[in-house]
UniProtKB/TrEMBL annotation, chains A, B:
It comes from Halopseudomonas xinjiangensis. It comes from the Bacteria. This is Phosphate-specific transport system accessory protein PhoU. Keywords: Cytoplasm, Phosphate transport, Transport. Belongs to the PhoU family. InterPro entries: PhoU, PhoU-like_sf, PhoU_dom. Gene3D superfamilies: Phosphate transport system protein phou homolog 2, domain 2 (1.20.58.220). Residues 27-113, 134-218 form the PhoU domain.
Length: 241, 241
């Protein structure tokens, strides 16, 4: 039978294992939604309806993962009563898991547009804006990857980088949207397919927003400072850059 | 000096006061975003740029409120180490506060479109779809109000009602969008303003989604069951309807 210290050490080891599991499962879910986004865009650009259907149904697994991670987080709080940085870790995961789930939702929406676009080829020039969609998709996928790496490595500088990228994505989004409006005005037969691609742009822009939310939580987790709705200069001061 | 029981009672009274404060502040924030949505639509329909500007800047107060409620929730968890239904209440608030903040964001976006529409009167017929925007807005505002009432009264039947309404809103959204596509095809000069109104529809539809998320959390808080991604029939069984 262990003495009191041995017993406490045992508890603290178990606690660390549970926190580790929470981190691992969160990152696993992160990997799943990253795949979802890249496959959805692949399906769109190559008009691959099979891949689109597969991506669409992958959303169920992501949803299950969200429940699992939330349950783990609640259990850790109820059983271990974490405080300070441990509590911030758990609470950040609870916030971030909702962002991951919504990234999955956006990927699902993109898959749906991929399916409807390949079914409906009424447009004269083939869908416009696919190159732009791929470009923005690469950009926001990088943001999601960096946000997850920032979480895995407690890397606040990387989190800050993610937030800075968001402005560039917003610009790319606006430019791409303007181009599509021009196509729509040139020939009203383009309107329907251009609108679908426009919704795809919007979904991708939202993915970038969610990556930013995750990055904000990483800074909160590491520094204990809530940087949501904070000017960039102040964020830089907090992170020490 | 109070005896041990008196001391515990004192702690538990303070705890109840803190939980009450958390609930009150959450509901206050709910009232703020409800006002934001209705004012944004008012500004849009009446082309009232002053009101639109006011609504847009009200978002800062909502953001501050989000920080406050989150801080309160974290403090309660760290200090009081709640379990069971108390923990579910606090965790639900942490989830729901993010939905309220995003409802505020959508209202802000609608205000921006209201401003750009009244500046840009290039469309031939005046903006189309305003009636539909008001109609969907009334519907989703009702959902937000009901979701907040369901939270305030632990009313799971009302929460269920909110989730059922979402399907109807999605239908209204689709019909309204189709009407606008027709206007765009009829006269390409309508494209720009129709697109703005289409983004407004989308924002409103998102508001409905957030109301649903809040309703799901209410059921989790009261019943301890996670009904996200659960078929409606199962939700009804859980709620006992």
């Amino acid at each position: 039978m262990p003495n009191k210290n041995g017993h406490l050490q045992h508890i603290s080891q178990q606690f660390n294992t549970e926190l580790g599991q929470l981190r691992t499962d969160f990152l696993k879910m992160g990997g799943m939604v990253q795949d979802q986004v890249s496959q959805a865009i692949e399906a769109l650009v190559n008009q691959n309806t099979d891949l689109a259907e597969k991506t669409r149904s992958a959303d169920k697994e992501v949803d299950q993962m969200e429940r699992l991670v939330d349950e783990e987080a609640y259990r850790v709080i109820a059983k271990r009563q974490p405080t300070a940085s441990d509590l911030r870790l758990v609470m950040s995961v609870v916030k971030m898991v909702a962002d991951l789930e919504r990234i999955g939702d956006e990927a699902k929406k993109i898959s749906k547009f991929a399916i409807s676009l390949s079914e409906n080829d009424s447009n004269v020039h083939g869908p416009r804006g696919l190159l732009e969609a791929r470009h923005i998709s690469n950009h926001v996928s990088e943001m999601v990857r960096d946000a997850l790496d920032a979480f895995a490595r407690f890397d606040t500088a990387l989190a800050l980088k993610v937030m800075k990228e968001d402005k560039r994505v917003d610009e790319e989004y606006k430019t791409a949207t303007r181009t599509l409006v021009t196509f729509m005005m040139e020939d009203p037969r383009n309107i329907s397919s251009c609108l679908s691609i426009m919704w795809v742009f919007r979904s991708l822009e939202r993915v970038g927003d969610h990556a930013c939310n995750i990055a904000e939580q990483v800074i909160f987790m590491v520094e204990g400072e809530d940087v949501r709705h904070t000017p960039m200069a102040e964020r830089e001061k907090i992170v020490g850059h």
